[in-house]
Amino acid sequence: MHTLPVELLQLITRFIDHDDYYNLYFSYQSNIPLPPVLSLTAFNNFIKTKRYYRIRIGKLKHIGLPVLDKEYYCPEIFSYLLGLNCLEAAKMFHLISNSELLELLSRYFFYERSILAWPLYKYLNQQNIAIPGNILGNIYRNAANNNCTEILMEMVDLVSIWEKRTVFHSVCYSSAFEVFEYLLQHLEITRGRFSDILRCALNRDMRFIKKFLETCQGNVDSGTLRYTIQHVDKSCAKLLFSYPNTRKTLLDCDNNHLLTGSGKIQYVFIWDYLLENLGDPASSQNEAIFVACKENAWYLVSKLLEDPRVNPYDRNCSIFTNLCGRKQFRIFKMLYKPNLTFDFKSILLELITRNSQNTIKFLLDNNEIKLADFEPVHIKALLKSGNGTLKEQLLNIPQLLPLFEQQILEPYQIGKAQNWHTIKLSQRHFWVLVPLLDQRFNEFFDWAISEEIVTDKKLISIIIIK
Fold first, then answer.
1. Which domain of life is it from (predicted)?
2. Of 27, 221, 364, 371, which is most buried by a Cβ count within 10 Å?
């Protein structure tokens, strides 16, 4: 065996954990292996520093590790290689007893996802060691979970159909397309299974869903298809529409149900394509705009309004009943037109209950909601909501003060204190209501404290000082 100069050996030993040693060694003479003793010393140094371990494992192949004799074997090296899930450990199997290896295969690899399991299985098989039957299936699943395509292809004819089906679930959203393709051909897939097609659809690699649809010829039940198309991107949605069977299934679905489904409509860019392909465009889009408003899909609403055939007001403006939430004010303004023939009084209570102060102010400013529309039920709902901003807004309207006074003082006057327990009186809200009490303030305050309607100690102390 050729040897390297002592000076160079010292340099390599010193810089074994340094990136420069690689260039240093190979720039000298790449075909001269290092002596085993130096290999062991170098590897012990390597163990101390785990940084860049994957790169260094590859470098160690060139400095004598594969030719370690048994006298240089140490359990730490083997254990460390196992921990790294490194195939280099397979070159040490002959240094370990078969009983130890079998115990390792039975216990360690049963739980861990390790690519070393299959080489160890083959090694023990060559040694004619009896191996428990369930281990092979576990190895196969571990290989699938680690996307070990070569191992899966090598093992595929050794495992049962049940194991293949189990592994197929994992492979559907992996990167092992060759294994997926092979299993798909041998699993007699005749109809799209819910979990499989969804996994394929969620895989960023479009080859999976395309191959799956080709194999099952688009025979996917409507429930699975509806759920799947709501969780994919636009390119996958187009692919689902490109197969005659899936397209027919989608077009036969109830449009509203297809668009709502599980309620996950955040992918509104899919809707554009769906609406272009769902039966009569006008009726489908009129239906869709109601759903879009409910789901607060303002982008889709704006796209639909570009179509002159779409009439969101064809149900006597009932579309606004879906727009009472605070976050839907943007769509509300988008759909609003002056002089709509609609009684906004019917949605006023819903707007108050859902704290939609922007929408109420907008309608008041545009004279859609008249002061005469306010009734005691509206003020009562406002007092029960915790919306101080809206209370302040409406208290600035003199005509509404009598309604507030009626709702505030009537429970006190007739002794129905229980009605007050649902009214949230914070410090801010209480001071908003104080002007309504006028000369009866002290009397009212004593009653409120006695009934534990006002419990804020800071607020009580402020009022008493006042």
1. Eukaryota
2. 364
- Tell me which of 95, 118, 133 is where a domain ends: 95
CA distance 38 to 53: 19
Instruction: Give average pLDDT by consecutive 10-residue segment, the chain, 466 residues.
Output: 46 45 39 45 47 38 38 49 59 74 70 68 86 80 74 79 78 81 71 65 80 78 73 73 76 53 44 57 63 72 76 72 77 81 76 81 81 79 70 74 68 43 45 52 60 50 39
Q: How far apart are CA 146 and CA 70, in angstroms?
A: 31
Confirm whether pTM is higher than 0.85.
Answer: no
Structural domain includes residue 222:
no
Q: How many CB atoms lie within 10 A of CB 55?
A: 10
Instruction: Please report which helix (H) or strand (E) contains residue 291, including its range.
Output: helix 281-294
172 Cβ contact list (under 8 Å, min separation 6): 180, 196, 199, 200, 203, 208, 212
Q: Which residue has the tokens 């720039």?
A: 27
Q: Is 197 within the bounds of a domain?
A: no
Report the domain count for the chain.
Answer: 2
* Interior angle at CA 333, CA 328 and CA 336, nearest 5: 120
Whose CA is closest to 219, among 204, 195, 240? 240
The answer to whether residue 390 is domain-embedded is yes
